[in-house]
Amino acid sequence: MKHLPIIHVLVDLHQGWGRGLIRGVAAYAMQRGPWKLDYVPTSVSEKELKRVCRESDGVIATITHADAARTLTRTRTPVVSVSRIDARLPMVYQSDEQIGRAVVNHFVARGFRNLAFCGWPAHRLEAGRESGFVLATAEQGLVGQVYRARQTRPGRVTSRMALEHMAAWVGRLEKPVGIMAGNDERAFDLISACRLAEVEVPGQAAIVGVDNDELLCTLGPLGISSLAVPSQEIGYRAAKILAGLLRGGKPPGSSVVVPPLEVVARESSDVYAIPDTAVAACLRYLRDHVDQRVTVDELADFVGLSRRSLEYRFRDAVGHSPWQQIRRTQVEKAKRLLAETDLRMDEVARSSGFRDGRQLGATFKELEGERPSDYRLRHRGRYAGVLGNIERDAVQ
What we know:
Blueprint lengths: L5 E5 L5 H17 L3 E5 L5 H10 L2 E4 L4 H9 L4 E3 L10 E3 L1 H14 L5 E5 L4 H16 L5 E4 L11 H13 L4 E5 L2 H14 L7 E6 L3 H4 L7 E3 L3 H16 L9 E3 L4 E2 L12 H13 L6 H8 L3 H12 L3 H19 L4 H7 L5 H12 L3 H9 L3 H12 L1
Parallel strand pairs: 1-2, 1-3, 3-4, 5-11, 6-7, 6-8, 8-9, 9-10
Antiparallel strand pairs: 10-12
Helix pairs in contact: 1-9, 1-17, 2-3, 4-5, 6-7, 10-11, 13-14, 13-15, 13-16, 14-15
């Protein structure tokens, strides 16, 4: 009888990132396995982790503390790390610098000059994202404020005292401010802290999380904007490397670094910190009517300005013309539909203010450097169909 490899995945399933990771591993196992997959929480003791390694044919690990790194480095069992650590292990991980840059750019594009970060430093992922935020703000010539949240461990309910401490920090920040949270849990806490501090979201404090955990981001009355990270792709790639190791192959010569996807904009950052009220009104109008093929003349009439005056004020406020802003807004709407729906390309085009799929394709390629179909495939993953099969099988 053929041996069925036993693969353990060390991961936190209470976070969207961890759930995406294990789904990516499962997709690879369904395509190229079969494997027997088992889940191990990152809080596992060193003794228990050693037992897991002895019983496993291979391990894919989110490494959150030094004891786990030491154990996994010393075991003879093939291990692939999905954390950025200083260890002699094959690694597939996300770029903290690119994550920080994507969120900071999201705020800067909306006119924010006051930026801040809120995270839990004891968690490796959040600590790395803090570093990425600091680097990204420096690239913009800005200095961001950093708050290190009080919490015992990931997954625990944040105490009232911790929220009050966070609220006091939010209250002291210069407004309006764009706050990057270390993950969506932290963003959820920030919404509560702002409520305690009587700080309006997004008017005074715009908030963006990381991981795009749809459950958390859409749980409350205020949708949370979040940077989508390719955790499924990381899981898939890690599984592919592990499969090579199980066949006796050599690990890759260098680590695999996977860039983030896009900020999925929801209500928590749906605001523009722009002093020019006319331009800010145009941006809001565009956001609300992007599917109606808005023109520059229509924007000028809406705010009671001549077209020439609006052109000057737009360039002064945001650095480009109203026409360029219309196209950017259309493409941003198209990107969201491509990533989150199964609409046909002509339907995506019409819902984004384009005449048809051909016009969408030409504009999208010009601004994004790729075709809409390639963007959809990259964002949703080459294994999206396999993941759908897994979910359907689980329900049946």
